[in-house]
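Please review this one.

:::
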Amino acid sequence: MANASSLTPLSKLDFSLFSSQRTTEKITPPPLNFTGTHSFPRKIHTLSGLKKSGSVLFSRLNDQIAQKSLSTGSELQVQTKMWKWRGYTIRYQYCGTSGPALVLIHGFGANSDHWRKNIPILAKMHRVYSIDLIGYGYSDKPNPRQFGDTSFYTFETWAAQLNDFCKEVVKDEAFFICNSIGGVVGLQAAVMEPTICRGVMLLNISLRMLHIKKQPWYGRPFIRSFQNLLRNTALGQYFFKSVATPEAVRNILCQEGKVEEKREWDLVRDSKSSRNPSFDPSKVGRIGGRCYHDTSQVTEDLVQSILQPGLEPGAVDVFLEFICYSGGPLPEELLPKVKCPVLIAWGDKDPWEPLELGRAFENFDSVEDFVVLPNVGHCPQDEAPNLVNPLVQSFVARHSASSAGLPLTSLS
């Protein structure tokens, strides 16, 4: 690992704005302390002076990618199709006819529509696919109980789905562009079949703070009991019905809580609160802070795109199954096993996945770069696409120049 003194000073990085009406203000980050060693230098960048609209010149690692205004006039047509996977129907969207293949992977409770501001822009230079993971969006939602003691909704399942999608639909190697838990899916897929993934970009990857390994030993029995309570009693159904409303979704996305440092699921895990008559699950999003720092991006279209698939038959069982899923891989377990380049970008106003903890991932050899996105929350691709889209273009261009992708049929 590079020590702090060897990192490129932020003041010497060029993140200039192509507009005479705007000024660039440099952001000075807090001092960073690193331990361990790296086989090559790392850089932590903060994008500064960038606005949520207009033309941006993104300059980093000697690459320059121009991202123009997000005008819909020249956007390509995004198409929606269904794919049969292991007998299940999976929805995906695609756009673009040339260039490297990108597969966009959503987070918990979201779906491929969460990339609606990215697909048509990225498709100008890439073949872009966005998939609904099984159990989410408009993909099938098999009841987890039908699998008995075998867990179905796991990162291994979703990783297998992603790799098979690349083989059967994309029919090419691909870059995985991931948000939140989608990042764990992308890493798991890259570990399981390394010849498929050309690179992984992680946007505010889930830290999985509720993983059983991250809980004190004396609290683990309680966690298991509470998970059983959610799965097997009316409490889980009640909680889901309380959050599956437009008001609750909007609260989670944009209403700032009074106690910023308290994580939203602390309230849910508190058995006293869950038995308290004054406990209101619909306000749980207010406890966790704002998912979107820029609340003007929380539109009715966004709320409905998240809510409507959650009202589909079977959605409640998938929801409860995942919030009770405290096993499986952790990002810090997968990153050392990844053979392809990884770029991490982090919205610094994320109330759920703190930047201070995320920075630790910069220590892994597979991580070539860590970029801080100022004044952005948990879903940078939707809240600040004008920052994310050029970052994706730069990352893909850098790793496409050295070697062209081969069809997967050629790799067998």
Q: What stands out?
A: Residues 86 and 141 are 13 Å apart (CA to CA).
